[in-house]
Amino acid sequence: xxxxxxIAAGEIPSYKCAEDExxxxxxxxxxVAYGHTLVIPREETDYIFDLDDKTLADxxxxxxxxxxxxxxxxxxxKVGVAVLGLEVPHAHIHLVPMQTEGDMDFRKxxxxxxxxxxxxxxxxxxxxxxxx
Length: 132
Known about the structure:
Oligomer: single chain
Structural class: alpha+beta
Order of helices and strands: HEEEHEEH
Largest sheet: 5 strands, antiparallel
Helix content: 25-40%
Strand content: 15-25%
């Protein structure tokens, strides 16, 4: 079982931003920008393009809803999307609030926020998500 599966199952704590029966979104604990969120299918599949077509499409629609909620909460020009997927063997989408394209540079130093800041942000995004 991947670390992301354990997070989605509630076995490992996370800063939950959104969920439904098939997908889960949570704040990245090593963010490249404030609000950096990961969106995963609950079904554990390593490579995003190994997901069946319906799951892949539904994952993107779910991520879109999370991005809309994120943009309502975090001031940004756009929410960037990236699929990298080498660090954890579980398909996932990165949503990154951005002002410039440089905000999507995954090689730069990761940011740090307090647990209180992370929880407050996750709660705001989750409330915005549920209101959509």
